Amino acid sequence: MGDRTYYRLALPADLDREAIRMAAIAFTDDPWTDDDVTRLLDNSRPDQPLWVDIEERSVGECRDAAEAVLTALREEGQDVAFTVTEDPKYEWLGTLCRYQPGKGIHEVDCDANAQAVLTDGELTVLIRTLTDPAAILDRITARLGLDWQTPAAA
Q1: pTM reported for the whole predicted model
Q2: Most buried residue, 39, 59, 62, 109, by most Cβ within 10 Å?
Q3: Model pLDDT for residues 95-115, shown as the tens digit of each residue
Q4: Where do the H-state alpha helices sit in the chain?
């Protein structure tokens, strides 16, 4: 792994062009033109999320990026599901932030494939403190944010 931390924004493919542009500006903290949006759309498939990748964020971490994107989308009148991931670096896990309309932003540690992580220590605590298997499953679902999974995160 290099010395940089990589971030990725996943947006719905059917989002309007101006919302894509404004979300990308909020995420990258760089200007985005109509040509940039055209290139992004030309290099994507209509049945797949739109991916915006950057090497470093100069304006905060994963949660900050997700909140900036959410604000930009809301200003464009859009309330759509999206994800922001921060790749793991060195011995630390990455971060996965999912936004789901009506639920808000869920943040969880993730691996290099943007998969939410539940450690064996966390699982052991759940098993020791909860006796009902349904309660354990509910807590795991909440911890991993499975209710926040979006087409962009799948």
Answers
A1: 0.86
A2: 62
A3: 999 999 999 999 999 999 999
A4: 17-28, 34-42, 62-75, 120-129, 133-144
